[in-house]
Amino acid sequence: MSQQTLIAIPTYNERESLPVTIEAIHRYSPEVDVLVVDDGSPDGTGDWADERARSDERIHVLHRTAKNGLGAAYLAAFDWALERDYSIICEMDADGSHRGRDLPLLLRAIDAGADLAIGARWVPGGATVNWPWNRNLLSRGANVYVNVAIGLGVHDATAGFRAYRRELLEAMDLGAVESQGYCFQIDMTVRAKNAGAVITEVPIVFVERELGVSKMSGNIIEEAVGRVAVWGVRARARQVARLVGRRR
Question: What is the set of domains in the chain, with CATH numbers?
């Protein structure tokens, strides 16, 4: 898998946590490359990444001048990776909540035939550590809401620890993705399912960050609730149209 797997890590003010995260990635998966997508962090995250990249050819840095959201950062990373012929592109948080030791599990799922491997908290074997009860409830509730509204059939559609086969990303119209916050993960899961992808959920342990500050906000939650409602209406409309078509 050497030089074919890229781990994309969006950052904004993650100077303390990023070094720990990258060290953990390469401890368990020394062959993978890492792309730090920094949104102009004022705390020097991008500068640290540049310095590290000069001494480690596995580290790359993509600087963005504005903080335009998680979705835009990942889309930029996907474009960067596809242009350079990576065969597997992974998403991973910078804050240590996604453990480097779990990364090989996702890569093995891709090797076993998955087009999208999701590191899932809400499947047997999955767990969270030190997560506040309100965040736990919010995440579980969001996934129930997604499945009721859309019928997605995925236990952890909001998960941000995942691996994509490049062919799946190439089959998607990434230019049409407008979701910016954590709704981006739901959006991409919906698009993967609509593309006929094989989706595998791999149980992982999600650990509450010890360094830095969470980026979760009310606007992010509002975006997810609104967009999922729209997608749910569209999904039900398609089901009705198919049913009417069969009866004719």
Answer: 5-247 (3.90.550.10)
